[in-house]
Amino acid sequence: MARRELSMKRWSTLGLVIAFLILALFVYLEPKITARSTPTPEGTSRNLLEISSASIQRIRVIDHSNRLEAEAERDASGQWFLTVPTRHLVRQDALDTLAGGLATLFVQQVISDVTDLSAYGLVTPTYTIVISATDRVFTLTVGSPTPIGGGYYVRREGDPAVYV
Question: How far is Cα 9 from Cα 11, in angstroms, rounded to an integer?
C-alpha cells in the first residue's frame, strides 16, 4: 500500500513538473498573433510585467482545469526548489528560463474596452499564475486561446485591460 502511495506521489510531482515545463514552453515560444484588439501604443513598455528575471523569487501556477497546483521558490543562494506539492530541487535551467520568459512576456495586443470577460475565457480562467518578485507580486489569469496565432488572453490583477 505504501509503495502505491509513493508511486502516485511521484506521478503527481511529475505531472506538475510537466505543467511547469509546458508553461515555460508557452512563455518561451510565445507566437505572434493578430486578434480583435487595439495595438500597444508605440513608445510604451511592451512587456506585460515590469520586472527582471533575477527579481523573481517565487512562481505559483494553478491549473484550474486539472485542479493541479505547483510552486517553485528561489532560495537565498539562488537555487530553485519545487515547494508545492512537495519540496524538491528542480532543473535550474528550466526555472531560470521560465522566470526569464515571465519577466519578458511580450504584449502583442491590448484590449482596453472589455465588457464581457467570458468572451476571453477569463470568468473561469484556465490558469492563474502568481509571480512574487523582490518588491511586488503579480497575479495573472490566463483565459482562452486566441482564435488565430496560438496565443492566450491574459489579465493582470487590478488592470481592466486584457492582453494577448
Answer: 5
Rounded to whole angstroms, the Cα distance separating 104 from 27 reads: 9
The Cβ of residue 121 has, within 10 Å, a number of other Cβ atoms equal to 17
Going by C-alpha positions, the residue among 129, 67, 136, 121 that lies closest to residue 101 is 129
Would you call the peptide bond into 85 cis, given omega within 30 degrees of 0 as the criterion?
A: yes
- All three cell numbers of 111, joined, read 484590449
17-28 pLDDT, tens digit per residue, is 565 656 654 554
Q: Which three cell numbers stand for residue 8?
A: 502516485
Identify the H or E element spanning 18. helix 2-28
What residue ranges do the domains of the chain occupy? 2-163
Record the pTM.
0.73
Q: How many other C-beta atoms lie within 10 A of the C-beta of residue 143?
A: 21
